[in-house]
Amino acid sequence: MEALYRTGEIPLASIIVNNYNYGRFLAEAIDSALAQTYPRVEVIVADDGSTDDSRDIISAYGDRIIPVLKENGGQASAFNTGFATSRGQTIFFLDSDDVLLPTALEHAAPIFRDPDVVKVHWPLWEIDAEGKRTGDLTPTGELAEGELRELAVREGPINHVNPPTSGNGWSRRFLESVLPMPEAEWKICADVCLMELAPFSGRIGKIPEPQALYRLHGQNNYSARSFDERLKHGLELHDSLRAAASKYCRDAGITVDIELWRQKSWFHRLHKATEEIASLVSANEAFVLVDQDEWGMRAENSRLPIPFLERYGKYWGSPPNDEVAIRELERLRQSGAKFMVFAWPAFWWLEHYASLHRYMRNNYPCIMENERVVVFDLGRSVSGAVRQSHAVPE
């Protein structure tokens, strides 16, 4: 980048703000795109058939932005149209309810100097509807970087942590290989499709510090859905991603095993695990779930999981030691918990909390054990007798 600055050949970057009826947030998104410290930016606003005041807001910016006004077609349609209008060597899709921090493109540009880099991503600060930071980051997991093709070929889609749309920048070379996307198929989650295809094409770069704000305002909060709704959506999404990724690999001459991808996928493993739990735990029976709060399962309908550790019905964190874990287990058992389920990816508990594990084996029968769940029956002793209440261990 330093040499490019000296010669004046600074690559053009394109920010494509994709919008549908988010007029109340749109100006803030556009302003953040125009406020970038990177010196060569074109700002394109792709409005996907909004019926609110979005188009009045867009027109007020005049020639400071490039408006693309289209009929409603969904996220892929907005991506396709916006990209077709763009001229930048790097592309940044910005959801119109989010905000880019001023240094986002400046930090991404040096990473894109590597011609093998197809995507650069970063975490985002969460904000509420009024723009106030909650103190949380999204995503919560560590973002991957580097050469991920081998992992992607082996594990298939959704094999590493990705940020939402506004946490990514793309090389034009990569987007030209995947766009235009099928618009009927990717009305939603088009960003996820791009994220999952990228590792097959090149390297992934990372900026450790947050470079955008991710707004939670009640209409985009995935966690607000029920567990069953999220799982159903995840299964359908993974199937669509498998089809898209396998076609991309086939066209690129990369051999993959899509059935193995299915077996390894988080959502299909989770679906199988919930079926196994349901086969043992009757409706409206409470059970302790050790999953580090990663499954996202909540008490709803007839399912009554209790997080461990638990405070006021919510996940509290891992116990500080085995003694606390055993004491809390017995408290929950005496309060009505019928089973204890150790769920992948929390199997490390069984080794780390060795005394708890021995206590479970010595006192309660293990009624299921596989690569997804280990289930103990808290209602019976290892001898098969009905377990009686007793004092909580000190």
Provide the descriptors you would attach to this structure in a database record.
394 residues; alpha/beta; Spore Coat Polysaccharide Biosynthesis Protein SpsA, Chain A; 2 domains; 7-stranded mixed sheet; 5-stranded mixed sheet; 18 strands; 21% strand; elongated; disordered N terminus; disordered C terminus
Task: Describe what you observe in this structure.
- 37% of the residues lie in helices and 21% in strands.
- It is α/β, with parallel strands linked by helices and 394 residues long.
- The chain folds into two domains: 220 residues, Spore Coat Polysaccharide Biosynthesis Protein SpsA, Chain A; 97 residues, no CATH class.
- Strands 3-2-1-4-9-6-10 form a seven-stranded mixed sheet, sandwiched between helices. A five-stranded mixed sheet has the order 13-12-16-18-17, with helices on both faces.
* Total separate domains: 2
**What is the typical, i.e. mean, pLDDT?**
92
**CATH homology superfamily name of the largest domain:** Spore Coat Polysaccharide Biosynthesis Protein SpsA, Chain A
Task: Work out the strand percent.
Answer: 15-25%
End-to-end distance, in Å?
A: 63 Å
Rounded radius of gyration (Å) = 24 Å
- Spans of 5+ residues with little confidence (pLDDT < 50)? 1-7, 389-394
CATH topology name of the largest domain: Spore Coat Polysaccharide Biosynthesis Protein SpsA, Chain A
Helix content: 25-40%
Reported CATH architecture of the largest domain: Alpha-Beta Complex
Strand order of the largest sheet: 3-2-1-4-9-6-10
CATH class of the largest domain: Alpha Beta
Secondary structural class: alpha/beta
Identify the overall geometry.
elongated
Number of strands: 18
Q: Count of helical segments?
A: 14
| Major β-sheet annotation | 7 strands, mixed
